[in-house]
Design a protein that fits this description.
Helix content is 28%, strand content 16%. The chain is of the alpha+beta class and 103 residues long. It has a domain of 70 residues. Strand 1 and strand 2 form a beta hairpin. Helix 1 crosses helix 2. It starts with 13 loop residues before the first helix and ends in a 20-residue tail after the last strand.
Length: 103
Amino acid sequence: MTTERGQARVPWDAEVRAAMQPVLESLGANEVAVGDVQTRRDGFDALLQALAPDPLPEFPGITVQEYQTVSHDGEAVTLRVYLPPGGAPRGSALVYFHGGGTT
């Protein structure tokens, strides 16, 4: 099996496909055109809602601070800082940057 671009397509295991069905439905059936950023963002938002609906779960003792910034193309980006119990960070930090769009 191949896609119209000639890429190999591996068939899904039936049990995995059943578990992933809500996610697959949120992605839609059509391939998104290269450069169609808004459709990709909308699809990714739907994917996030399928995987982790708002609001985020609460973790006892963990303080969450949210900040907003704007990307180079004007899109709002949420930044979250998670602080340990007691509020003041001590020592090391983990910084996670998501790469953005998908193909």
